[in-house]
Amino acid sequence: MIPGDFRTPKPNKNQLIKMAFAGLIGLIVFSGIVVALTFVLSSWLGQPIIFGNEGPDQPIAFPHNVHADQLGMDCTFCHRTVEKEAAASVPATGLCMTCHSDVGDGLEEIAKMRSLYDDDRSIQWVRVHRVPDHVHFVHEAHIRYFTAEEGIESSQVCSKCHGDVKNMEKVKQVEPLKMGQCVDCHKQNNAPTDCATCHY
Amino acid sequence: MLPLIVLLVTIKGLLMALTRRQFLTLMGGSAGAAVFFQACGVPEKELFIDSPIEMPEDLVTGLDNWYATTFKEGMSSQGIIVRIMEGRAKKVEGNTDHPLNRGTHSSSAESMLQLLYHPDRIDAPLLRTGQRGSGEYKEISWEEAIDRLSSQFTSLEQSGEQDKAVLVTDPVNGHLGMVVKKFVSATGIRHMTYEVLEHTTLIKAMDEVFGQDNIPDFDIDNASLVLSFGADFLSTWVSPTRYSRGYGEFRQGHEHRGKLIHIDSRFSTTAANADEWVYVNPGTEGVLALSIMKSIVDSGQVSQDVIEALFDGNSSLLDLYKPELIASFVGVSESKIKEIGDLFVKSEHPIALGGGTAGAYTNGLQNLKAIYSLNHLKGNVGHKGGLVFTPNSPIEGLETTNTNSASEFKSLIDNISTGEIKLLLLKDADLYYGLPDSFGFKEALFDIPFIVSFSNMKDDTASIADLILPQNTLFEDWGTDVPLAGPGYQSVAFQQPVVRPFFESRGDNLGTKSFPDVLMTLSQVLNKNLDLSGDTFLDVLKDGARQLFDLKRGTIQASSFQEFWMTLLARGVWCDVNEKSINNSYVGKVETVPEAKFEGDGRFNLVPFASAAFYDGRYAFAPWMQAMPDPISTATWQTWIEINHKIADELNIKEGDVIEVRSSNGGVITALAMPNPATPPNILGIPVGQGHRDGGRYAAGRGSNVLSILGTNFDDKTGALAWASNKVNITPTGEWIRVPKFENSVPDFPRDEHQQIVEISTGNNNHVGH
Question: I want to staple A92 with a disulfide (CB 3.0 to 4.6 A). Which of B52, B349, B590, B688 is the partner?
Fold first, then answer.
């Protein structure tokens, strides 16, 4: 090769194989890093950052927007114990039937629910919001505090963590619900931040 | 994945003998991996939430609900409230609204939880497959069980032998009693009522002395003197929860402090609590009572009207009972008899009550009549601080059925032996356990073609039955109660299911059922009309509540029946404290008391006593009750013998020696000796309650059943078993078992082991110890 000659020499067959091999390795390493980062970020944020963040499929496609927004039902009408106990509780199928024994004829999802009720079988809802096993989250205490502090309805408190559920056809998690978020909020509201407040 | 990595790191660490730094680095890596794989998600099963099919409005996780119900126990009952969390019963407390216990409750009420959750409860109808008594059963459906039972009834009816079927129950009352009575009359079968430690003599005495058919409320609360003859009312007699409440007021009330004199041949819990325990020779309680009566009448403080009523004007009958004449016979000094008589006269509100052993001799009825007649002397019937009888129930037919006496059961057994009984139905009547061996029931039962038991656990009798139809327990069932030992005014207590039946998950055709509902279903199958106001027991009960509502009086006032019903269930009891209408003027004549007859010629008077934990053996299934120390001996989990410590020394008997007790009819039991200075030398006290053949894993084969060795002595008048009239002998077996007891289980520390205490003696020789 002479100076000024910018033509690159054609790699020979051997070099080509080596480069292709190196490229492949690079690609694999890069995808590995991307996948790992996705995993770490998903895990850090407590929810998938790519696939699956539209919320899980439920055995019965219950539209929260129809009930909570269009019909104007209060969250506590179905999640009855949210003001009284640690868990918000999913409603009993019997409660659905108070309306749907008459309302909703001809709808496929309603038919599914009715047949489960008739067979004495429970609906296996897929959990959307979940804190780790070693965390105790008491709904009742949070509802009690915020309704008194901000003078708002119980159902408005729900959206602080659960997002705007009444406009979701399919419920998904919108807040990370990680410990950092808990601690930040506890600090803002002068709530205790002792470990034993939640880890007991 | 994560556990695998941790495992690999650990194994690698072990293999490579890592340095601390290397190990920590690797652990950091694995922690990172833990975060990394968190995104893989959680196990799938944790992501599902089962929605309930139905959920009661009042079910809140983590919050308790208390439901009122009624616990019926022999002659009396207690109002209780039960703590329910997430549909499970957790704790029993007393119901403050109930007129008898007013917020207090007994340990036996508490133990009902252990019946509910007992591992040996029967969860479906059982049909015997093996030999009778072998305990081999197979599960059948309720449909088949009712079929089999109804075919028994039908075949008896076809041959016109309905009276060869006998239904034996505990003393039933309330609407259950009503259903039983109607079932019995519709089907034409016989009904008998059985109590292990029967109260027939006591009830008869009430009838003859006061002209009443119930046991009065003893207003101990306001009494100034209680003279108790053999009635262990603070531990087991009639209604200990109510009496203990009264006793608290009697002793520590603000107005006064009453005096309790307990007259008994055994040192019982009540004796231990009394100001004075007076030993009386067994069977002479009535004679002593008449002697006390003599000294009272002699004081001149008794009005002529009363003397007229009691003795037809001539009290010379009492001359036989002058204290000086009978002192040595009854074992109480003349001065003591006069002193008691004097106290009784001077006392403003004295109460004389008797029962337990005093009524369990061949002269039991006369004993009790003499004792209760003392109350007429001070005219304290129907008054504050006296005996207050309860008026009839506001709803007809709710009163307790009369108990059949032991002699009637003896003739039942004779009927069985001659083949006159074809069908025996048993509900809460453990004949196998309660009847003495000398009655011959254990042999005769093989002559009964078909035995049906409604027990919810295999008690001694149920485990020989051909068909077991398990009934619901107290906490799963409906009922009402009008106690025989009432509060002195009208009351109807309601029992409601506080939890769903425990075996509900087994479906409609298995699991347990309510006894009255089974009777009602059976009568439908047999096409008998019971003339009841509904198809289920709950309908009958609601109709009863409606009758109370229609009265428009009492503690519950409501504008609608629904409101009345809900309030009634919430409070657990309806009372009308103003309804006391009763005729208190009846005065029974005083009679002489014959001498008690004893069976056998043994050295000791055998005094079986109702155990504070098991009463008559019915609570032996519960480990809580097994572990409850006896108030006197503190013994648990065993059968023991109370024997005088000096007699024990003489016979070389130590605590824990296994002693054989032999009665004249050949009955033998063994039990552990517990020498006690408070036991009189001629008395051998043995608690009733242990020695079950079956009855669940905690009762079966534990201790001995003292009832089994009793003879066939009956009360002369009532035919009740004279269970305290046996004389027995004892022989040590040479074995020794440590008595499981609460007190004194740690051995004494060695005193002066190294003999460092200096002994100082008097005298010339100034001896100094080591």
Answer: B52
DSSP collapsed to 3 states, B428-488 = CCCHHHHCCHHHCHHHHHHHCCEEEECCCECCCCHHHCCEECCECCHHHCCEEECCCECCC
Residue with tokens 């109350």: B375
Please give the residue of chain A at the shortest CA–CA distance from B58: A81
Q: Beta-strand (E) ranges in A32-187?
A: 124-126
Residue B57's pLDDT band, with cuts at 50, 70 and 90, is: confident
CA pair distance B75, B193, nearest whole angstrom: 12
Residue contact A93–B48, C-beta within 8 A: no
How many angstroms separate the CA atoms of B138 and B154, rounded? 24
Q: Which residues of A touch B37 (CB under 8 A)?
A: 39, 43
> Do B107 and B129 contact (CB within 8 A), yes or no?
no
Domains annotated for chain B, with CATH where assigned, are 2-59 (no CATH), 126-197+396-580 (3.40.50.740), 217-388 (3.40.228.10), 604-736 (2.40.40.20)
Q: Are B406 and B168 in contact (CB under 8 A)?
A: no
- pTM, two decimals, is 0.81
CA distance B353 to B216: 10
Q: Which amino acid is at A127?
A: R
CB B661 within 8 A of CB B686: yes
Task: Name the strand (E) or helix (H) holding B668.
Answer: strand B668-676
Interface test with B, best of A83, A118, A124 (most B CBs within 10 A): A124
Query: Is A126–B47 a contact, with Cβ atoms under 8 angstroms apart?
Result: yes
Which chain A residues are closer than 8 Å to B44 by Cβ? none
Tokens 């001077």, residue? B346
Q: Which residues of B touch A40 (CB under 8 A)?
A: 35-36, 39
For chain A, how many residues are written?
Answer: 200
Structure tokens at B168: 């034996």
pLDDT range class, residue B86, cuts 50, 70, 90: confident
pLDDT tens digits, B254-303: 678 899 999 999 999 999 999 999 999 999 999 999 999 999 999 888 88
> CA-CA distances (angstroms) from residue A92 to A73, A78, B62?
16, 8, 17
The residues that bridge with B94 in the sheet, in sequence order, are B80
Residue B768: pLDDT over 50: no
